[in-house]
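Key result, reporting period 2: structure in, sequence out.
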């Protein structure tokens, strides 16, 4: 427990913030539906959130570097509160899209502040433990937020009050902490082309997981409401998905430590597709909850295993860049998914949601299976240890990932793709071509 004392205020802030975040992510699509917005506009607003998240990852670190962590966090939360509360007063669809873009950007900025501060305040040999605790808090808090949403049926303004209350509380621990603020946050480093060259499998898994889970987060609440016509059932449906992902990560991660991760990802894609099609056929509330749990167990694990696969095929000195690319490619997939699915649900009916997610899962799995072993293929014995992760983070989280903090011997080499590559600790052969 002593190792957590320096970061206790940050973890408390995370808990308050993510409870409010989990509540607002489910509530806003429902609110938009109540206001009569079309499924296309609701999907577009979900896409705008993830596009804002991607933009925030690129634009906000320089702001934090200029004004510091505490000021940045306070300003970002003030913008969040003002933007969120405006939605209680307006019903224009395009305005909702703009506001959700802003909410995505400031949430990414808030994650960046917390995660970079955690990395700075944690001893190097404790990074893995603190990151695991942080991931657990993120998932548990988001699930608990669904429970709070179930308490707000009496008044349509209660969710706005609850979210504002929780986000406001999140400001307090950080503002009053005695811990010194860390050094400026470095600019986000991404390189999608390098990620693709390092591992086609990790690239496909990152993009596919974004498409699948982005569609679910954007329109899953609308689907549950349409199937049951019970607004009180929706939080339980979303919570079942989150809990499924939280409980399955470690068993799936342990399996991926013992089995080629390419096969694990392909199996997860197949299982996600089957469970998505199963949800299309579910009629009772019990079967919907079971389907959401199973779908969450498999689909939520795609991101973490894809990240682990990317880590296997990259050097420690480039893991932050590769990991950030996995995360932001996931956000890019999420941004595109909600828009397409929203249009499809309006044209073809609610069943188009899980039909699209199931198809996307199977296509991703087939692509992974068809990849031939490359020169950078990693044997099971050489795979790194799985570390639980969630896409509800910012690139700053990779600074405290144990897969990036060990120093090794490097010397400049020239990769086959023509770029200078300093990683010379080869897994099974030279890092020059794409891995399967």
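The corresponding designed sequence is given below.
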């Amino acid at each position: 427990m002593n190792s957590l004392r320096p970061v206790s205020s940050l973890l408390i802030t995370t808990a308050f913030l993510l409870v409010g975040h989990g509540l607002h992510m489910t509530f806003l699509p429902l609110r938009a539906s109540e206001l009569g917005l079309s499924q296309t506009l609701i999907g577009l607003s979900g896409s705008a959130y993830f596009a804002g998240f991607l933009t925030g990852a690129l634009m906000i670190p320089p702001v934090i570097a200029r004004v510091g962590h505490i000021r940045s966090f306070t300003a970002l939360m003030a913008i969040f509160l003002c933007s969120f509360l405006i939605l209680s007063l307006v019903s224009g669809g395009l305005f909702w899209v703009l506001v959700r873009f802003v909410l995505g950007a400031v949430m990414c900025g808030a994650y960046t502040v917390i995660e970079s501060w955690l990395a700075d305040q944690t001893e190097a040999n404790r990074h893995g433990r603190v990151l695991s605790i942080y991931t657990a808090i993120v998932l548990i808090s988001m699930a608990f937020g669904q429970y709070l949403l179930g308490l707000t049926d009496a008044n349509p303004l209660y969710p706005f009050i609850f979210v504002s209350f929780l986000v406001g509380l999140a400001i307090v621990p950080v503002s009053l902490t005695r811990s010194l603020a860390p050094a400026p946050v470095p600019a986000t480093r991404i390189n999608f082309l390098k990620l693709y060259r390092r591992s086609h499998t990790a690239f496909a898994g990152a993009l596919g997981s974004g498409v699948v889970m982005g569609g679910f987060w954007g329109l899953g609440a609308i689907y549950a409401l349409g199937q049951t016509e019970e607004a009180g059932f929706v939080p339980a449906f979303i919570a079942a998905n989150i809990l499924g992902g939280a409980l399955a990560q470690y068993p799936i991660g342990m399996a991926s430590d013992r089995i080629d991760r390419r096969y694990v990802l392909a199996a997860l894609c197949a299982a996600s597709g089957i469970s998505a099609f199963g949800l299309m056929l579910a009629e009772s509330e019990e079967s919907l909850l079971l389907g959401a749990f199973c779908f969450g167990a498999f689909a939520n694990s795609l991101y973490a295993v894809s990240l682990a696969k990317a880590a296997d095929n990259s050097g420690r000195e480039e893991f932050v860049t590769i990991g950030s690319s996995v995360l932001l490619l996931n956000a890019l997939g999420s941004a595109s998914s909600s828009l397409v699915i929203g249009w499809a649900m309006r044209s073809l009916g609610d069943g188009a949601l899980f039909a699209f997610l199931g198809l996307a899962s199977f296509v991703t799995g087939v692509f992974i299976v068809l990849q031939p072993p490359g020169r950078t293929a990693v044997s099971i014995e050489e795979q790194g240890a799985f570390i639980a992760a969630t896409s509800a983070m910012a690139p700053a989280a990779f600074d405290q990932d144990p897969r990036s903090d060990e120093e090794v011997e490097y010397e400049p080499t020239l990769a086959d793709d023509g770029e200078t590559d300093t990683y010379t600790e080869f897994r099974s052969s030279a890092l020059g071509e794409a891995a399967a």
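The radius of gyration is 21 Å. Confidence is low (pLDDT under 50) at residues 406-435. This case is discussed further under Risks and Mitigation.
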